[in-house]
Amino acid sequence: MILEPGPFTTARLDALPLRVAYADEMAAVLGDPALHTYTGGAPETADGLRARYARQTAGSPDPGVRWWNWVLRVRAEGRLAGYVQATVDVPGAAAEIAWVVGTRWQGRGYAKEAAEGLVAHLLAG
């Protein structure tokens, strides 16, 4: 099992470990209210994302759980387009995964590609 989230790639995407420095660009990626149609809430500001990313990168307060988060960069554009994340139960080595792709990048298969890449990355660790 991998101990911390390293980068991984897929055919078109670079998955980069989450950093607070990505908050400004991700605020634009995630800024469309349509992303919250089914999940509720509203887009976060860059400051809100900075605070959330600081909490996420600090890690879970539970020593038996790992919070691993990556932003997704579309290699051909050199721009961020979403994120994937895994909540890993260390004792059982089970993981729950999630992903979000900004509306501008939806309909191109990036979500499927990112989710499959994440699962492959977790299984390889």
Q: What topology emerges from the helices and strands here?
A:
Elements: E1 8-9, E2 13-17, H1 23-29, H2 46-58, E3 65-74, E4 79-89, E5 94-101, H3 110-124
Antiparallel strand pairs: 1-2, 2-3, 3-4, 4-5
Textual characterization of the structure:
This protein is α+β, with helices and mostly antiparallel strands and 125 residues long. The protein has a single domain, classed as Aminopeptidase (3-Layer(aba) Sandwich). It has three helices and five strands, in the order ββααβββα. The chain has helices spanning 23-29, 46-58, 110-124; strands at 8-9, 13-17, 65-74, 79-89, 94-101. It has a five-stranded antiparallel beta sheet with strand order 1-2-3-4-5, with helices on both faces. A hairpin with a 4-residue loop joins strand 3 (65-74) and strand 4 (79-89). Helix 1 crosses helix 2. The longest helix is centred in the last third of the chain and has 15 residues, at 110-124. The mean pLDDT is 93.
Helix proportion: 25-40%
Number of helical stretches of at least 4 residues: 3
| N-to-C series of helices and strands | EEHHEEEH
Named at the architecture level, the CATH assignment is: 3-Layer(aba) Sandwich
**What are the segments in which pLDDT stays under 50 over at least 5 consecutive residues?**
none
Total DSSP E strands: 5
General form? globular
The domain tally reads 1
